[in-house]
Amino acid sequence: MDIARLQRTKPFMDKRFGMFIHWGIYAVESAGEWIRNNRNITIEDYQPNFDCFTADQYDPKKWAKLAKEAGMKYAVLTTKHHDGFCLFDSQYTDYKATNTPAGRDLVKEYVEAFRAEGLMVGFYYSLLDWHHPDFPAYADMHHPMRGNEAYKDKEKDKDFSRYTEYMYNQVKELLTNYGKIDIMWFDFHYAEMTGEKWEATKLVKMIREINPDIIIDDRLGGDIKVDDPVYYAGDYGSPEQMIPAGGVVDYKGNPIPWETCMTLNDHWGYVADDINYKTPKNVIRMLVECTSKGGNLILNVGPDARGNIPEKSVEILKEVGKWMRANGESIYGCGISSIPKPEWGRITENEDYIYLHLIDANTVCFAIEGLKDKVKFATRLSDGSKINMEKPWNYTSFLEKDPLFIHLPNYNTMDDIDTVIKLYKK
Predict the structure, then answer these.
(1) Which residues, at least 6 apart from 293, have a Cβ–Cβ distance to it below 8 Å?
(2) 351 and 373 together in one domain
C-alpha cells in the first residue's frame, strides 16, 4: 500500500463531492465536446465556433457559489479539451480564448472565483489535440481526420516530440501562472498512446517539482492497482459514468483512492436539447453510494457558449444542496463502514460516528447486526432528534443474533431521498 499516496490524497478524498465543468468552443455547436470526432469536421469547418465564442455572460463567481450551495468542495475545469482549444492565455498557441470574441483568460477568472469560495481548484487537460499540426491524424483511432486520404501523406512531416514539448510547456504554464493548483486531471491514454508516448515520467516529475502535494488522476497510463505502480500511474482511479460494485481496490483487495465522474444529463459538453437529466434523488444516492465505497463523485455541468450553466442543472444542484446542508456530515470525511451493506440502504462511517442511510425502507423498525454494545445513542441527522433504540419484546423468537434496533416514529417522518440516522459510537 502506497502510504505517501494515501496521505497526499486524504484531504481530497475527505471532500467527497466536486463539480466537473466541460466548456469550450464546442458549446457553440451544442452537440457535445466530441462533435469534431463524431462528424469528422475539419479544422476549417470548425473555425466558426472559434469565431462565435463570446462567453459574454460568463461569471465564474456564480458558478463557484452554485458549487458551494450544492455542497461541492472542489471543482475541475476543462482548460483544453480534445479539440485543442485553450480557455487560458497560453503563449504557445493562438488557438485560445483571448483570441476569440470572449477576449479573456477564462481560466484565471475561474481560479480566482472558486478559491474565493474556499473550494479546491483543479485543471482538466486533454492529452489529445486535434488542432496541433504534429498530433497524429490519419492513423489515430480518435482523430476527426482518421482514414481521410487527404491527410495520409501529411503524416510523414509530423514530429510527435514537438507536440509533447508543447503539451509539457502548457501544463507548466497552468501550474505556474495561477498559483497553487490542487488537482491535475489528464484525459486520456489509449492503444499505443499511453505512458512514455506522452513522456509521462518527465511530465509528472515536472509537476511534482512545482507542487509536491498536487493530486493527479490515473489517465496518463500505467496500472494504479499493482503493488509498485509506475511513477506516472496517478494518485487515484477515475471510473467514468459508472460506480464500481465494490469500490476500487488493488490486486490484493485493499481500497485505493478513487473518484467516479458522472454527467448530469447525457453529455459532458453543452447540448441544448439534452433534457435527460438525473434527479436530485439520483445525484444524492450516487454520492452516498460512492462515499459508502470509499470514493468521490465529481458531477459535470456543461455551460453554454455564453457562459451560462443550464437552468435545469442549476435547479438540480440547488435541491441537492438542501439535502447536503442537513446531511452532509454523513458524506464529508466519511467512507467505508465496518458494517456490511444492508438490504435497505447504505452505511458511511468516520472515527466517531456511523451513519445509516435509509434508502429502500419498507418498515420503520430496523435491525442492524454487528453493532451490539458499540452504540450509545442515535439521532436523526437532519434535525438532531433522538431515535428510539429499544429492542422489541419478542425479537429473540425471530433473530438468532443480538442486533441494534432503530425505530422511526412513522413513514411520514422519512425522507423520500435518504433518511440518515447518526449513531454515536461508544
Answers:
(1) 243, 244, 246, 247, 248, 336
(2) yes
